[in-house]
Amino acid sequence: MAKTFKGIDVSQYQQNIDFKKVKASGVDFVIIRAGYGKYAHQKDPYFESHYKAAKAAGLKVGAYWYSYAATVVEAKAEAQTCINAIKGKTFEYPIYFDLEERSQFARGRAFCDSLVKTFCNALEHAGYWAGLYISRSPLQQYISASVAKRYALWVAEYGSRCNYGRTYGMWQYTSSGKVSGISGNVDMDICYVDYPAKIKAAGLNGFKKTISSTTKPSASSTKKTVTYTVKRGDTLSAIAQRYKTTVAKLVKDNGIKNANLIYVGQKIKIK
Questions:
Q1: To 5 degrees, how large is the angle CA 133–CA 111–CA 162?
Q2: How far is CA 65 from the centre of its chain?
Q3: How far apart are CA 155 and CA 100, in angstroms?
Q4: What pTM was estimated for this model as a whole?
Q5: 7 within 8 A of 189, measured Cβ to Cβ
Q6: Is the pLDDT of residue 216 over 70?
């Protein structure tokens, strides 16, 4: 059986957490609420201290942002507020858009899809691995399969199993878990994807991309061609910037017909 990872998620409603005890109890990761809504003052007041203490205890960390967006414009504003709240930090797990307001679901599937895409695309554009947190029933009713598949999916369904039939990366299975180091109840999660490995390899979430090279080229050595594999959220201009070249040169060297159309897994030669 593939390896799974044990996690919890916390917010200002869990205080005075002893993250060292949490780690010692066998928990691998924690998803921390960074905030909610579109205003800077809605950043979770415990986000900074939770982040610092969880990292110090050696836990892997992700974050989530609770949405109240009633329009696509508000979802974009929420994304920007979230980006401002998390910048300068590193996250081994995705940054999740938390969609659970009845008023949002009442507007139907196309509307919910548009909120998710707006928020997650803004996060991806800023260099983060974006995801969606949602309960199973609204997920099946109000999110298109293509959108659910496009981002890291974290499904909430309390009980002994998750009855969502499609692929998902993480399952929140209870809100009344008990973990050493936390007084009271805490949400418990199982993750089925090695996000830390994927995120670090892709150079997302504040991590620098690791270029695997056994020998460091000396200044006098001839420039080698680097082959770059396109990752989720990449743009040609971002790749050009990273490798100190130009979009025009990448287009020319790779015979790319449309600079705006690159796809995940595409190999791009950087000369």
A1: 30
A2: 11
A3: 11
A4: 0.78
A5: yes
A6: no
